[in-house]
Amino acid sequence: MRNIYLVILCCFLFSCSNREVSTATIVERDYLTDLLKNPPEDRVQVVNFWATWCAPCVEELPAFVAIDDRNDVEVILISLDDASNLETLVNPFLMEHKITPTVKLLDDPYAAEWIPMVDAHWDGAIPATLIQKGTQKMFFNQTFTSAQLEEEVLKFL
Amino acid sequence: MKTLKILTGVCIVALVAAIIFGAINISKTTDFYAENPEEPIENTTAIEALEDFNSFSDATATGYSIGDVATDFNLRNIDNTYVSLADYPDAAGFVIIFTCNHCPYSKAYEDRIIAIDKEYKEKGYPVIAINPNNPTDYPEDSFENMQKRADQKGFTFPYLFDEQQEIYPQYGATKTPHVFLLRKENDQPIVKYIGAIDDNHQDAQAVKNHFLKDAIDALLTNQQVNPETTVAIGCSIKK
Asked: Do B39 and B141 reside in the same domain of the chain?
């Protein structure tokens, strides 16, 4: 009997672990450089540039939360909010909107230096999304619906 | 004992539900793999190249490049007059800045835009700010709120409303703030610089490159603008 309880407890713990709301942490440019230099081979990485003040970004977030549930997809949301707003704006926003994928706040105002590293055609308007796996890479300066995002991600699988 | 039985019952139901849910998830994944066999890498690279090409040509086809003739406009200013480039016969050129009220990046640059207008208006390059946003999406960017913001900040330049959203696509503005520096050549406004005001929206004191000021200074001294285009994070303009 006790074993069953244990099994059930484990089931619940396990099923919940992936669904926890994220807490954003601050990163600097080296994080982005590493991310761009070392795309994973075993999963599709979806890197989305957004901010809490960007309405079209906020609109498309549910699509990114949904696709992150797949085991073969990893979503990384790079917030371009000001670092001083981390605890007052960004983390409360993640809680309110139940944002579960990894969130990093990129604290690097010299965007003209790192925007071209992401893609040569990006002029800095957000939202912007980079999908990468191994040697494959695609960049999108557009808003995604869930269906559009899934369609693009599937091309990598 | 009875409570224990009930508890056990509840737990078993939960367990069964968890298994079924898991099974559904597994079958979904299987279907997905069956329907989408891995595509060869060459294929995707071709798609990437095509996509890149498309997105690039889309972006440039609808907007100006350096050297293009910029269109004039006739847009409503916050004082309810209408403003055109033709109203400035004595100007050597224009600093057209697509900006708005709601965007934190625009707000961060308001004081710097005022300073640029004050400094360069006298030298022949007045600032003309244009709000390209649809206030249905961003109520903060309504005409009334533009008037309020300009009043609060003491804007020294016209703040025009691209109400029909017809001007910003011709220029190719994608975000706020987005600068287009024009110089009159044979009475035609020619695009000389496109991009950011400088390279640090957060801290004016920590700016390393004053892109816009350097570009205007280059024009004033008849030198080559360098760089002619720059990138910066901005708030996407919403149709």
From this structure: no
Q: How far is C-alpha B129 from the geometric centre of its chain's CA atoms?
A: 14
Task: Tell whether B80 and B196 lie within a shared domain.
Answer: yes
Taking the CA of residue A141 and the nearest CA in chain B, the distance in Å comes to 8
Ordered domains of chain A (ranges, CATH): 20-154 (3.40.30.10)
Indicate the DSSP class of residue B92: S
Lowest mean pLDDT: which of B26-40, B46-60, B117-131? B26-40
Q: Which residue has the tokens 């244009």?
A: B130
> Tokens 């009334």 label which residue?
B144
Q: What is the DSSP letter of B185?
A: E
Quick one: which of B164, B104, B155 has its CA closest to B128?
B155
DSSP line for B187-228: TEEEEEEEE-S-S-SS-GGG-S--HHHHHHHHHHTT---SSS
Cβ contact B233–A111 (<8 Å): yes
Which of B:60-99 have CB within 8 Å of A? none
Residue with tokens 């007052």: A88
Q: Which residues pair with A140 in a beta bridge?
A: A129
Decide if B162 contacts B75 (C-beta within 8 A): yes
ipTM of the complex in this document:
0.84
Q: Where are the beta strands (DSSP E) in B37-92?
A: 75-77, 82-83
Q: Which of B219, B199, B217 is nearest to B208 (CA)?
A: B199
Question: Chain A partners of B29 at a C-beta cutoff of 8 Å?
Answer: 70-71
User: Range of B10's domain?
Assistant: 2-60
Q: Which of B8, B48, B202 has its CB closest to that of A137?
A: B48
pLDDT at B143: 98
Angle at A128 between CA A125 and CA A130, to 5 degrees: 145
User: Distance (Å, rounded) from C-alpha B177 to C-alpha B99?
Assistant: 5
Question: H or E segment at B80?
Answer: none
Instruction: Look at phi and psi of residue A134 and say left if phi exceeds 0, alpha if psi is from -120 to 50, else beta.
Output: left
A4: confidence class by pLDDT, cuts 50, 70, 90: low
C-beta atoms of A109 and B44 within 8 A: no
Quote the radius of gyration of chain B (alpha carbons, Å). Answer: 26
Q: Which of B17, B34, B60 is the endpoint of a domain? A: B60
Residues B56 and B73 in one domain: no
Structure tokens at B6: 């009930």
Check whether residue B150 and residue B39 sit in a common domain.
no
Q: Which of A50, A52, A123, A140 to mutate to test the interface with B (most CBs of B within 10 A)?
A: A123
